[in-house]
Structures are given as structure tokens and as C-alpha cells.
Amino acid sequence: MIRVGITGGIGSGKTTACAIFERLGIPVYYADKRAKDLMQEDKKLVQSITELLGNQAYQSDGSLNRIFISEQVFNDEAKLLALNNLVHPAVAADYISWSTILENKGYIYCIKEAALLIESGSYKDLDKLIVVSAPLEDRIKRVMARDGVSEEQVKKRIEAQLSEDYKLKLADYVIHNDKVTDLVPQVTKIHLDITSSN
């Protein structure tokens, strides 16, 4: 089975592209969503996060205290790195289990969607890489509307990620989400290319 990664800067439209792949019958592993689930469900991971950030990392009902965690790691690179070093291996192991089940079911390929696929280095374990590209102005507007944050906050998040140019150099396929080029034909073309190369 071919393991395909899909990434792109914040607000580029990764989720929209993934929804089209899903409509084509391709399973998608949403790494960022699974990371949040594992941070609440994986007892070993919960214990490690609590040891790193303190009991305030979790609400009384066991859910993540996202505001507290963000405050702890946002301006502390060492803490952010330590947190990522706990979460990324747990997600990697979870993804391997998930994709192995699909391989046994006979899927030609599956997709792993992650914002930090390149930053974490996990793209190196995949066979193909798709990068979703979108104009900066569109990305900022999308994230402001989606997350209810200011333009300045979005720009800070974008600056914290690797540049789009760097990501595009590593891509096997690029999806342009620019309001001009329709996404469906682009995704369909990639789908046909991957399925015919197997």
C-alpha cells in the first residue's frame, strides 16, 4: 500500500482537499485530531504530559486544558520541543497501526494529513507528499474566520511554520487552492496517478 502525506500551511485548505479524497473512497488519517485524542486517551501519554506541564494541563473531566497548554509552550521553545517529543512518537505508532489495518483490507493507498508533517520529519516515512498551496491573504482570512483570532495572531502562527516555498520543494504533488483552480479535478488527477502507478 502506498502511504501518502498531505500538508500545507495553516489555512491552506488541507481538510477541504482531504474531504475530496475521502469522497473518492480513500481513508484519511487526521494526525492533528488523533494527537488531541491520544493526549486524552493514552494513559502513558497523559502521565508524561502531566509530568511535563503539571496537573493544570487537564481539566477536571480529563479533557485537555488547551488554553493552559498553549500558554505554557507558546513562548517556551524547550517545553514545546519536549511536548512534541512526547506526542509525535505516540501519533506515529497510532498511524502505523491504523495503516496496517487498511493494508490488510487491500487499499491501494491511504493519506496522512498533518500540519507539521515536514517539521516533524514524519514525511520521510511516507511514499508520496502532497502540499496544499494557497495565497497568504486567503489563508489569513480563513483562519481568522475559523478560529476567531486577530490578523496579527494568524501571522504569528504562519511565521512559526516552515515557509511554503520550502514545503513546495519537497512535494510530489501540489494542490492549488486559490479560488481560481477547482480542487476536484486536481485531487482526481492525483488520485488517478497514484492508483495507476501501483
Account of the protein in words:
Helices cover 57% and strands 12% of the residues. The chain has 198 residues and is an alpha/beta fold. The chain folds into 2 domains: 1-27 and 108-198, P-loop containing nucleotide triphosphate hydrolases (Rossmann fold, 3-Layer(aba) Sandwich), CATH 3.40.50; 39-106. It has a 5-stranded parallel β-sheet, sandwiched between helices. It is globular and about 50 Å long. The mean pLDDT is 93.
The SSE order reads EHEHHHHEEHHHEH
The percent range for strand residues is 5-15%
Share in helix: 55-70%
**Number of contiguous helices:** 9
Q: Which class of the largest domain in CATH terms?
A: Alpha Beta
Low-confidence stretches: none
Biggest pleated-sheet summary: 5 strands, parallel
What's the alpha carbon Rg, rounded to whole Å?
Answer: 17 Å
- The H-level CATH homologous superfamily of the largest domain, spelled out, is P-loop containing nucleotide triphosphate hydrolases
* N/C terminus separation: 8 Å
CATH architecture of the largest domain: 3-Layer(aba) Sandwich
Indicate how many domains the architecture comprises: 2
- Please state the average pLDDT score: 93
CATH topology of the largest domain: Rossmann fold
Structural class: alpha/beta
> Which shape, going by the Cα principal axes?
globular
What is the spatial order of strands in the main beta sheet? 2-3-1-4-5
**What's the β-strand tally?**
5
